[in-house]
Amino acid sequence: MVAVTGEDEGERLELPALNLAVLLNSQTNGQEGNEGQSEGRTVAGVLEKRRICYQAALVSEIVDGRTVRCMPISAAGDFSALMDEDEAAKVPPVTAALRVPSIVYVNMEEPPQCCIKCAVGNANLKQQLFQLTGIEAPRVDFNEAHLADPSSCSLLRVYRSQHMDLQAEPMGTASAASLSDLVLGRVVLLQIDSVDGDGGWHGRMLLPAVCNSQVEGNCKVAKLYRLLASRAVARERALHGPLENLPESEGEWGRVEAISRLIMKRRGAKGVEDILTFFFGTIFDSSVCPPTMAVTDVAHVMLFRGLAWVGAETLCKSSKENRVQSEQHMLAVEEGAETQSRGVWSLPFDLFEKLPVANRRRRRFSGERSDFPALLIAQLLNHALAPEGGSRKRGDQMSQGLIFAALVVRVVDGDTVRLVPVLSDEAVRIHVDPAERQRRSTVKAAMSGSTRWIMDCPFYPEVELSSWSSEEKSEEKMSMDTRSILTQVYGIDAPEVRVGGVRHRYTGRCDYTQTVDYGSFDLDIGGQPLGVAATRALAELVLGRVVLVKNLGRDRYKRLIGRIFVSAVSDRLVDKEHKYKEFFAALLSRMRGKGLVEGSLATTGVEGVVEAVKRLSEKKVKGLQSTILQCLHEIRLDNISGLVDASEEMLRRGLAIVYTGERVMYDGNEQKDRLCCLEDTAKRRLCGRWGLPEYCQIDPKDFRHEHGRNRGGKPRGTLRQRCMDALLGITEAVNGSQESGEVRNGELETARTHALSVGMCGCQVIV
Fold this sequence. Notes:
Oligomer: single chain
GO molecular function, one term: endonuclease activity
Strand order of the largest sheet: 1-2-3-6-5
Distance between the termini: 27 Å
Strand content: 5-15%
Structural class: alpha+beta
Keywords: Endonuclease, Hydrolase, Nuclease
Number of helices: 30
Shape: globular
CATH class of one domain: Mainly Beta
Radius of gyration: 27 Å
Helix content: 25-40%
Protein name: TNase-like domain-containing protein
């Protein structure tokens, strides 16, 4: 560990980015020490030996929305010599900077700060040029762009900062201001993957949630280190077994360092990548929605705000697989900003066409190479609604009928789940490690299991992912709505479980004294008969899988009412490559059978499906989305449907009944009739609850009434609804600790200062 003691005696300065750079470089080198930052060794020389170099640096000047000048930091004393305490104290906390809405930068009246004091007029100061890989931003010239008087062009301004862009591209100032608030005056972690001919660095810029202990407090730094250590230990234990011989260390960072070294020693170079994944998936602040992560990729924030777009250059040079995953995730984030008309995507056409992005061919798909068919299907279905080449319109993603991909992270009971919308494989990997994915059964195996075995199993089922069960329980209840969407599975009502949900320890008495009629009877103490069995059946089908969710609206408890589809092949890693290809080959064949595909295609399989849908979209075929869904339902793979409806499966097993409460959403009368038919069939066959005594057949609605429960828990006001909108990308962020108001148009000139001082809701991206 590098000494990070400040110049003042007895005062310790912690720079998390510096510690992370030293740790990652030492393991990449295969030896102790930070070769990338040692004197006499250039970054270009280091990159000749390995693919990536990590470097801590103080950002000293903003060039534009993707380019900065910075000064490498190899010790805490370097930072103290460059920035005095008064200047450092003026830099707002990272968590506040991440929450500023993009509209604040678009409508700012004054030019942003573009450099720190030590960089002003100091020709002897050596600064390094660094450019974010994978994104492009509007050009800006700080020497000329801010000379215009706002009053001289007030009648012509489309957005309030336009007068500062007269000598620049549209929204160039807004883009630079966003990057300035994020990184200027902070020590960040640079992941350098290339050096250009002029000596400029290119790569990723990673922003820790806490950058400076003297400004943000030692307690926040300690919290960051504690969370990183806890996350790494929990995930490693769940995926690869406990860490043995963990040495005692001094301080919170010493523990992070010791844990990381053991993981890297266990798995070599792969361990470095896993450590970064653990850090990216660590939640630092769950009081906002989406939560602030321990480490944030600055490029993703710029894309999310709509103040940058995906560039054409190589995105990640560590490996072909990682490059593809990063590209797909960035394209998905960009598409979300475009859909919601944030930043440059809100410009009128005459201004938008001045940007380089207007001249390149737009890519609508961000999941073409995904391991998860549900991700690609969601992209295909959304593309079918918004044909390529059409006008850019603001889309309300919460309109009924929206279909999106989501990862099921927790099963609450037999008809309720918590899920996280995901945009790409990279987002999925934050929550589910490949080793954990491999432990999941195939969809066919989950559906082939005997209902009687599910009812008789005497053990509690797994109801949440390891990455979620490892969270501190003291913060769990408070943060659940800011981290995931509580979703009611449409059209069904399953037996209730005990208050508090399925846990491995339970309290309370059984309300029934009859003879035990099924094996999991004891697990239902405090709840309703077959409550745990229904939870197990749903968990076997959806937990840890990327599923398709069709939004049917919200109920009175502000839960999402969702129709959940599980594709017959849910994960290429689990179902293997040949099943993945067979799934899309069957879909393409069915589309041909319906006359949707005419002539020959250049490719087959998943690429062929994508090409076919693109052709149909260009022809503006009506009802294309519903037709594709019908094809998916009609194909058969291992005697199961291409898309499995979770509600239908629960009714087929006899572990749920058709819900008949108020304002029920069935996705149409035809689907309601189908659900009732499945319930009647289960009754005739005596499946599940229908083959047990009458006390096991009590209507869940009657049970809730008798025991004073309601179906949705305690009402949450509008907070749950606003968190749902934020997780779906409709709004930029929500303050989960209090009800905060929206920015009014008349307050835009002071919104940026207000947002940074009080932590206004704003942007935060899950990488």
